Amino acid sequence: MNAIPLRRPESAVAKPVQLTRESAFRTAAGLVPMLSERAAACEADRRVPQATIAELQQSGLLRMLQPARFGGSELGLDAFLDVVMELARGCPSTAWVFSNLASHAWNIAQFELQAQEDVWGRDPRALAATGLAFPCGRATPVNGGWRLSGRWPFASGVDASDWMLVGGMAENPGGAPERRFFLVPRPDFASLDNWHAYGLTGTGSHDVEIKEAFVPAHRSVSAETFAAGRDLPGARLYDTPLFRIPNFAAFAYILCIVPLGTAKAAVEAFTAGVRQRAGTYTGTRVAELTPVQARIAEAASCVEFAETVLRRDWRELEDGVAANNYPSMETKLRWKRNVAFAMQLVVRAVDALMPAAGAGGLSLHLPLQRQFRDIHAASAHIALTWDVHAAAYGQSALGLQPQGGLLL
């Protein structure tokens, strides 16, 4: 069932689009109007339209973090986050799915070369979704690999994916179970089509089930090795520092950029709209109302402060890895604290706008209500939740051991 087909002839594979940082951003900006037009349909279908996935493939953006060995552009995290933030202007659900699917090319490139060949050897445009809740999966060692079963929630973009990257607890004879990652192809996993949510509705974040799938040893990596970054099998294959970045330290940035980009777009669109708007009952120019002016200032400040800190921190991460300096536990906790607090600011920004928008802000034909719902939904992700990461940072600052189970 896990046999991997031979590589397709080159003539059967579309010529890859090679992107630079600048061309990737221009391409993303050019897709924003189309994403905006399809945002309502994306919500109604509870998944990103197949036409959108196809256009993201054709643009080369879904392969911007993929190794050049397999036709990718091998760009860095900084360029990637700029692209995600731009796509969020058009449709937050699409940006969330894009961020997940495109970033998983970076994760797959950190596996052994044979695993990468399994995924991309036949189809270099193959995509993977994830299920990262380790307790949801159980793996038993067998001859040549593992026997894996489980059910994982929140597999964003799974319906567009050929592979799943899941976490599981692996039996360890004579010791405690070990956290490991596993790469599993279709048809060994099933999407359960159960994502019904008030926010990020179009992400298709369904549960995924795997029953007794065989996973070869080369398609599994220890979670601790993934967390460290420097010792990953794929890190030895490529010169680009991207593939040495510790995954857990970077995980929150892959997610937080979507609500940040969404909030930035909401503030800009709201401000532009208010310049032309008159009150429904009084006819007064809304732009002349002091409370509205103050709310715009508050929202814009929240977004700017959040973006400034996030950009500083993720560049610190990238620059450190490029110089072979890996973050301490205290640094990783500080970064995660800052991401979670930035999300508090992003939520505050959109919350400040809603009362000033009046009843018009509730219209399903306008993006503000969707942006409001999507930002609140994103901020509930455990990687972005203030209560979790504030407590972990405080514990460390006070000389206590941070709570177990965090992706550190």
Describe the model.
This protein has 408 residues and is of the alpha+beta class. It folds into 3 domains: 16-120, Acyl-CoA dehydrogenase/oxidase, N-terminal domain (Butyryl-Coa Dehydrogenase, subunit A, domain 1, Orthogonal Bundle), CATH 1.10.540; 128-220, Butyryl-CoA Dehydrogenase, subunit A, domain 2 (Beta Barrel); 246-397, Butyryl-CoA Dehydrogenase, subunit A, domain 3. It is built from 11 helices and 8 strands. Strands 1, 2, 3, 4, 5, 6, 7 and 8 form an 8-stranded mixed sheet that branches. The radius of gyration is 22 Å and the shape is globular. The two termini are 34 Å apart.
What labels would you give this structure?
disordered N terminus; alpha+beta; 408 residues; Butyryl-Coa Dehydrogenase, subunit A, domain 1; Butyryl-CoA Dehydrogenase, subunit A, domain 3; 3 domains; eight-stranded mixed β-sheet; Butyryl-CoA Dehydrogenase, subunit A, domain 2
